[in-house]
Amino acid sequence: MTTRELNDFLTRTGPGTPMGGLFRRYWIPALLAQELPEPDCPPVRVKLLSERLIAFRDTQGRVGLMDEFCAHRGVSLWFGRNEENGLRCPYHGWKYDVTGQCIEVPSEPVESGFCQKIRLASYPCIELGDAIWTYMGPRELMPPHPEFEWVRVPSSHRYITKRSQDCNYLQAMEGGIDSAHISFLHRYELRNDSLHTGRGAALAGGTDVRFEVVETKGGMLLGVRRPAEAGHLYWRITQWIMPFHTMIPPYGDNALNGHAFVPIDDESCMTWSMTHHPTRPLSERELDTMRNAGGIHVRLIPGTFRPVVNKDNDYLMDRAAQKANKTYSGVKTIAMQDAAVQESMGPIQDRSKENLVSTDNGVIMARIRLQKAAAIAQQGGAPDGIDPATHRVRSASLVLAENASFLEAAADALHARAGVAHTSV
Amino acid sequence: MTTRELNDFLTRTGPGTPMGGLFRRYWIPALLAQELPEPDCPPVRVKLLSERLIAFRDTQGRVGLMDEFCAHRGVSLWFGRNEENGLRCPYHGWKYDVTGQCIEVPSEPVESGFCQKIRLASYPCIELGDAIWTYMGPRELMPPHPEFEWVRVPSSHRYITKRSQDCNYLQAMEGGIDSAHISFLHRYELRNDSLHTGRGAALAGGTDVRFEVVETKGGMLLGVRRPAEAGHLYWRITQWIMPFHTMIPPYGDNALNGHAFVPIDDESCMTWSMTHHPTRPLSERELDTMRNAGGIHVRLIPGTFRPVVNKDNDYLMDRAAQKANKTYSGVKTIAMQDAAVQESMGPIQDRSKENLVSTDNGVIMARIRLQKAAAIAQQGGAPDGIDPATHRVRSASLVLAENASFLEAAADALHARAGVAHTSV
Amino acid sequence: MTTRELNDFLTRTGPGTPMGGLFRRYWIPALLAQELPEPDCPPVRVKLLSERLIAFRDTQGRVGLMDEFCAHRGVSLWFGRNEENGLRCPYHGWKYDVTGQCIEVPSEPVESGFCQKIRLASYPCIELGDAIWTYMGPRELMPPHPEFEWVRVPSSHRYITKRSQDCNYLQAMEGGIDSAHISFLHRYELRNDSLHTGRGAALAGGTDVRFEVVETKGGMLLGVRRPAEAGHLYWRITQWIMPFHTMIPPYGDNALNGHAFVPIDDESCMTWSMTHHPTRPLSERELDTMRNAGGIHVRLIPGTFRPVVNKDNDYLMDRAAQKANKTYSGVKTIAMQDAAVQESMGPIQDRSKENLVSTDNGVIMARIRLQKAAAIAQQGGAPDGIDPATHRVRSASLVLAENASFLEAAADALHARAGVAHTSV
Fold first, then answer.
1. Which of A17, A175, B220, C399 is 20 to 30 Å from the Cα of B110, by its Cα?
2. What is the pLDDT of residue A202?
3. Half-sphere exposure of A80 (CA within 13 A, CB side)
4. What's the start-to-end Cα distance of chain C, in Å?
5. Which residue of A has its CA nearest to B78?
6. pLDDT at B322 (0 to 100)
7. First to last CA, chain A
8. Does the beta-carbon distance from A91 to C184 stay under 8 Å?
9. Model confidence pLDDT, tens digit, residues B125-146
10. From the candidates B355, B361, B364, B367, which should be mutated to test the interface with C, based on the most C CB atoms within 10 A?
11. Residues of A with CB under 8 A from a CB of C
12. Cα(C263)–Cα(C280) distance, integer angstroms
């Protein structure tokens, strides 16, 4: 049972919290690369793990991510001038480089060495997979770069977006590892969405379903099996890679989908949505569909990462569509269905009131793994999921003989193999 | 004097509070019946006494009122599917009947008996007088159904609405039992409103006015008398029935009016407005007037119970109308004048700063009665106002001989008598 | 260093705080006179030093400023009727005169003397310089009236406005005594604004600049010097008069400008902007420019004192203008540039994180002076800046011989002299 104490433990990721300590051991997707499209472009405010930061790309194209506020008098560097390899505070012209090092204080003589003593908290950034990632933990413990397949394929094979959610990261992520809700919440979408065709879609409403959870080195496998042709089972296998990555089992010949659920602060998170194909560019039809809020992607309020459909407008609830079985919940699109139910639990779900069942084993296991990993991180150990080898995995959907061990039979399918397409029926 | 402690005592009605314990001993108007217009219609969110609830009408037409959040993972059942005699959570299909009993958990085998163990807190509902009432207290102490005259007349004789107020119930209700403010705050409306004609209206501004407060079994009588023809007094008598019902003295041959002031939470309340005629249907003229925000009714923001005129727009203050004596306060309509001054006191008025006078005797008495009743309720006793006999009363306006005891002389007039019109001059 | 404790000390001005005690020893600009344009005009809500007050002008033209809420039941007197030398509560007709004395309680017999016992907290007001000033401290310690030059010149020589800021008064005021930021934040405005022409504007971007801070009886002089023609220095001298008045050094033949930074509450302040010429009426061109948000004045949302450009719209950030060196920060107009950076520090800047340098000596000195003055005020002593003699000063800009003491050489220029124009090059 998740007590209030454990719930607090799992959901708080600010500086100084145990879970915050764990999250600061991983590379975290912080911005879309296109948010900093070119050298000396405008700086961007970023809030991560309850820290207010400013991101900028300098004249040489390097990305900096540091404390939002000038070390001098506390002005937001969002008003800063991004010029000549540094971000300059508009108030008195103090200038910082991408490492947070102050490199100019106009009022002080250069020879005083004053500005060398001034340094903003800053976090190293890398660009991978059209995203800017940062590492917010102790430098000596920095892990190797992430190696998720979606970051390694060519840009043409990938489409990624992000959207904010008005709830804690954990309830969003728990939606991502909760295979059981698909047949309910998304029942009608799977039958109608052009990016969700294939066997899984047709079977979505079936009832003879079994769920299996298998721990892996980097996280978990969540297997769902249904009866298939005689003597066979149809398997759909989700990957969870710690601390917040998921890989959704594929549908037919469509591309792979995944999410990362990144805490903004304790009451909101950024849900990243990644679509990629291992072996071919995404087609214009696929891209068009996603740009028009198809698949797992959503329409955003221009200039923001907030969905147009959100809690302030009751997710544009359509009761007639719900009644007519066009949508199960009255909310349109898979992504917003997830967001709606997750946000409806409140900014931080009170898990002490839950009643979990066997289909929640994945959720239960994830909490245990996170709790254990936080303890390991507190002792300076290496938590699961920081080893890039654990990233090189895939989700899969496949038909196996009834008596086959899915772990053995699907072993290849569950690993990212360069030049080999994913396994999907 | 109302200390801060007593003020807290009187104004807090959430679970576990003494006043909350008292209120949970009465039938409470929760929704207009038309909010749940037909079987399997959309569920409705209701907040009562600081509890977040969901109301729905099932396939058989029965009304349920229960905890808003699914017992499984905390999703709001507002997204629920109302189908086949139960409300189904859209996340994993858990289904509840109108008693809050879980009747289906799709993932669990029926024979496990799992779902029988799951039950949401729920409150019994009845439909009376075009309203849905609920009882939120201990089942063994449930009182008989309310018998206010407005709930007992045919629907054609009645018009009821509700509107939210941005303040604690007590300061709204205290307005309802404060006869003294009529001659000031509503001075000009009484002369001009077609539903407020009659002797009282003409005399509204008079100065030789006396106030009398008489305790009754169910609450209080608030008598206001003014000089009438030689040797006579013109009396206007308000009823207060515990814990939050008021009956406004009538004007001429107009229908009777009353209110119920129901806590939403400690900083807002729902003000119900009931107009009824004991012996005849309301006329089209009367209904039209009320539908157009006449009498004690107001215009609402579509899809909400929030008045169009509200604190966010400074109640559309019209200083010119105030200066020209078209309105006394610059705010239009009796209902919004009340709301404006009540809300201006703050979400919860700090009564420790008051300076009460003799015309506040009704207010003082109500606080004493509520305080006493809460103590009785805490001991499991029967607080005043739960006996339906105390509901079968009326307000009245009448002329009595100077030396008559108004209690004796108006005894008949102050009781609801089937088939006999109210006493009003 | 400014610890968190000292930061709290300096920034909290509500009742009972040390800094609140200090501020309550001065005459404070509370309203523009035009906010109460004529006898019996509508009352106006005013929040000052965290106190919610109501201002009104009675039938005789006298101004009252008192507790916003009626002593009876707590209704806001903003709904009050301003009639026959008093403000009448719309609820039960209680009436107050400009001293807060209750002068009528309609329900109580006059002979009872009841209303004499009722008095709202109220503060004496004076009208000076098109502003209404109030004194919120102990009556026996009331200082003489303010004698700033801008209040003493004819109305034709003066233009004053006010605007609210979403931050504590101190960070706004510190901007006003921070000469060093001009060359950065306002660099491009000084070259283009028709009310900021003259030598100072041309030199704004110069680098060989020295700052001097000199304590005065009423506050501080902040001198900035730059090289001028051979053997000479160009001086710009700002005045700070306690507790929150600043006088900006003039530009060429333009009028003088100054500010007062008045706490609304701890998280917002009212920034007053005063432009005056000591010896001539302001021209139509000057007035037109200021009415159109020129100079130090801004465009306001109609019916409010909130700037049209504000944090909710990111100050209409124009990145292209910033990049093209049309504005240094991307924000338009001097006033809103100041507001933007000041507000960006948060509602109350955390000064414990600052790194101050020598050009912050004025800021450091002001904090010390305020801290000392609060201690003196707590002991009932006379803090600096309450003596009107300290108000009769001016800012100046002038060229002095290199070896001259600016204090001696500019002594005349730094005093307000009737009939003599200010010193400005």
1. A175
2. 57
3. 36
4. 37
5. A344
6. 97
7. 37
8. yes
9. 999 999 999 999 999 999 999 9
10. B355
11. 40, 42, 69, 71-76, 78-79, 81, 90-93, 105-108, 114, 118
12. 32
Instruction: Kindly report, residue by residue over C179-192, the tens digit of the pLDDT.
Output: 999 999 999 987 76
Kindly list the residues from chain B whose CB atom is less than 8 angstroms away from the CB atom of residue A348.
none
Q: Which residues of C touch B (CB under 8 A)?
A: 40, 42, 69, 71-76, 78-79, 81, 90-93, 105-108, 114, 118
DSSP per-residue letters across A347-374 = SS--GGG----GGGHHHHHHHHHHHHHH
Predicted TM-score (pTM) of the model is 0.95
DSSP H/E element including A31: strand A27-32
Cβ A143 vs Cβ A156: under 8 Å = no
Q: What is the pLDDT of residues C334-356, one digit of tens each?
A: 999 999 999 999 999 999 999 99
Residue C405 burial (CB < 10 Å; 0-12/13-18/19+)?
exposed
Residues B413/B398, Cβ–Cβ less than 8 Å: yes
Instruction: Check: CB of residue B245 under 8 Å from CB of residue B143.
Output: no
Query: What is the sign of the dihedral through the CA atoms of C241, C246, C249 and C254?
Result: negative
Question: In this complex, which of C69, C93, C107 lies closest to B358 when CB atoms are compared?
Answer: C107
Q: Are C395 and C237 in contact (CB under 8 A)?
A: yes
Nearest to B92 by CA among A307, A199, A397, A363: A363
- The C-side interface with A (CB below 8 A) comprises 174, 180-181, 184-185, 207, 317, 319, 322-323, 328-331, 337, 340-341, 344-346, 349-351, 353-360
Residues of B with CB under 8 A from a CB of A: 40, 42, 69, 71-76, 78-79, 81, 90-93, 105-108, 114, 118
Q: Which two tokens stand for residue C263?
A: 């706490």
Neighbouring residues of C269: CB distance < 8 A, sequence distance ≥ 6: C164, C165, C167, C168, C169, C172, C261, C262, C263
pLDDT digits (tens, 9 = 90+) for A144-163: 999 999 999 999 999 999 99
The mean pLDDT value of chain C amounts to 95
CB spacing of C79 vs B330 below 8 angstroms: yes
Beta carbons of A78 and A54 less than 8 angstroms apart: yes
Cα A58 from Cα B262, distance rounded (Å) = 60
Q: How far is CA C20 from CA A60, C13, C49, C391, in A?
A: 51, 4, 7, 21
User: Cβ contacts of residue A162 below 8 Å, gap of 6+?
Assistant: A29, A32, A270, A271, A272, A273, A305
> Which of A393, A380, A391, A389 lies closest to A25 in space, CA to CA?
A380
Helix (H) / strand (E) containing B150: helix B149-152
The confidence score (pLDDT) of residue C1 equals 83
Q: In chain C, which residues have pLDDT < 50?
A: none
Q: Which residues pair with B211 in a beta bridge?
A: B224
- Amino acid at residue number C406: F
- Contact assessment for residue B271 and residue B163, using Cβ atoms and an 8 Å cutoff: yes
% of chain C at pLDDT higher than 90: 92
Rounded to whole angstroms, how far apart are CA atoms C159 and C150?
A: 9
Q: A266: how many CB neighbours lie within 10 A of its CB?
A: 22
Please list the ranges in chain B whose pLDDT falls under 50: none
> What's the rounded Cα separation, in Å, for the pair C416 and B67?
72
CA B370 vs. chain centroid, Å, equals 16
Q: Can you say whether the dihedral through the CA atoms of C341, C344, C350, C352 is positive or negative?
A: negative
Residue type, A135: Y
Cis peptide leading into B154, omega within 30 of 0? no
Task: Provide ipTM, 2 decimals.
Answer: 0.95
pLDDT score recorded for residue B201: 60
Regions of chain A with pLDDT less than 70 = 192-193, 198-207
